[in-house]
Amino acid sequence: MTDRSTTARRRRAVGPVAGAVLATVALLGAACSSSSTSSGSGDTPGTVEAGTDVTLAADGPPRAGGTLTFGMSGETDGYNPTQNRWAGDGTTVGLTLFDPLAAYAADGSAVPYLAESFTPNDDFTQWTIQLRDGVTFHDGTPLRAEAVKRTMDGLRASPLTGPALAPIESVEVTDDLTLVVTAFEPWAAYPVNLTGQAGVVAAPSQLDDPDGARAPVGTGPFRFVSWENDKELVVERNPDYWRTDTDGNALPYLDQIVFRPIPEDSQRVAGLQTGEIDMTWSATASTVRQLRDLAAAGEIQLVEQEGQTEVAFVMLNLGAPPFDDPRARLALAQATDADSYASVLAEGITNPARTLFRPGTRFHSDVEIPGYDPDAARATLAEYEADKGPLAFTLKVQSTPGGRAQGEFLQQLWQQVGMEVTVEQAEATAFLGETVVGDFEAVTWGQFGSPDPDYEQVWWRSSSSKPVGELSLNFPRHADPATDDALDRARATDDLDARIAAYADVQRRFAEDLPYIYLDFTQPAIAAGNEVRGITNGPLPDGSPAYPMGG
Predict the structure, then answer these.
(1) Distance between CA atoms of 32 and 45, rounded to whole angstroms?
(2) What is the structure's pLDDT at 38?
């Protein structure tokens, strides 16, 4: 067994926060013992309990070197930020290879990361970005504003990332380390959108390479080594990385990370127990419960995400029957028992969701969707059926044990009030592809876990809604001028109270139009063997705390 040195780097768990946090773990994590067979307290550390969210091995000084094997839930189609979808684990891998221009601070605000500073004009229609000096790409070329502009222009032109950056009018280079981004309209929270895929910078050599999606070149703490689909992706320490720890030691600590796609949660947990992998994650309730038990027994370390997490929901297609009819959507909401879903299907690990943002987070509002009321559901259903006949539809779920359990639970619940429900399973790639083109009536989904909802605006705007059959980032095809107005108001100011009020109006429109029927707030967790150190989120480049993952 090799030394395990990880490094905690940033913020967003698989969902938004975990992918970045897991990448941060790659930057700052470290091992305290040379191997699992060496003598000394490093082999069998005690645990430190920090509430219910964190179970960590007793800490010690980081040890440089070693290889960490990370168990991923799935593959990504490539690592060109302008061409490929970095859903889920793609963000984890991507943010070990690339640095984002911004990162989330402990309070959920976006602060400079690869950038040195962000300076807006008075009405937030223009942002001056100053880059850090002395940063180099993995191919040895220096980070310059022209390279940032080239990636930004590619991101703006991409059908995947372009809609999120549509407010940008121009990107101009003023000197080697300075760019000016001009928007068509005020964008007070623009740096929020630079914390993930739309904020990383690829080397010009990668963008020039026809096979660049499989040979990424960034500025991140690790360099690309090799990739064999469905087997493993290997990265190695970047010896020229620009960050150091608080004692001035070069980061990252690890020599290498091996990412292995292991789709089944049970296999990843088993691999963690046997030492086949050193770290993994899950947001599946039954798996999180199992990981909690293993952590309580001292077999592993566990960190659970705090703050806003993804909300799980049933997403409805408003662009086609039957859910183009608001009565069908209302009946479904009234027939959905989120409390039972959380207590039975999620085994009490999660909290039921009736709002978009998690209670206790700064953008939470008390605006709730209609609650479970089977009698009201039957009455609404009768009104619908008097005009259009039986409410019959297909619920699409992922072809995983968790997806099948979701489908069976919801099917039984809705059939109790007289709906005719068919459950259809789809493998992950087809599931996503069919959703974005509107090939669904109802689908189970999870999203919107960003600390700041400005990052999510592209999914909610009418401009992102396209007809069924076309790629649409507004998946439910909810085109609503009142929602757009609230989103505009949220972007026009940096006053937090005004932004909170605007997003409360967004939630009010969702509660009225019901594109989403909320189920629960997911509870992502990172699990690691006891030899790994630094699995909570570490400091930002200026030493201030990053957005928390657990502790």
Answers:
(1) 10
(2) 26
